[in-house]
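Suppose a colleague, Dr. K., hands you the sequence of a protein chain of 124 amino acids and asks what its three-dimensional shape might be. Before reaching for any lab equipment, you can write down a predicted structure in token form. Begin with the sequence itself:
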Amino acid sequence: MSPECRKEVKRDLKVKEKANAEIKDTLAIERTSFANERTFLAYLRTSLSLIIAGISLHQFFNTAVSMWIAVVLIPLGLAIGAVGYRKFTRKRALIQRKREAYVPAKQMLALLKAEKAGQMSVSP
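The predicted structure, expressed as tokens, is then:
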């Protein structure tokens, strides 16, 4: 294999590695978003379980003890749901800001070249 061909192959490999890195970054952002949604669903599942348990205990047993357990479980379930929703919305906003701030390497290179060309043409 000639040295020129090797250089060309190495150049092509570097370009493909950069493209693969950008794909990995994009997929990492998506995985983070899905993980946030899964966590929120876990909070909802726990919240609904506590609320349903409180209502069921009171409906089936209808005693003073079951009423007090329901009085504890239902607000606890509502509080857990509210905390989960608040965490979800904050994390979702953070992920969105990171997603908007992400600039792929190709675009960054083009921006840097344009900025450099603009600086070179302005100087007297």
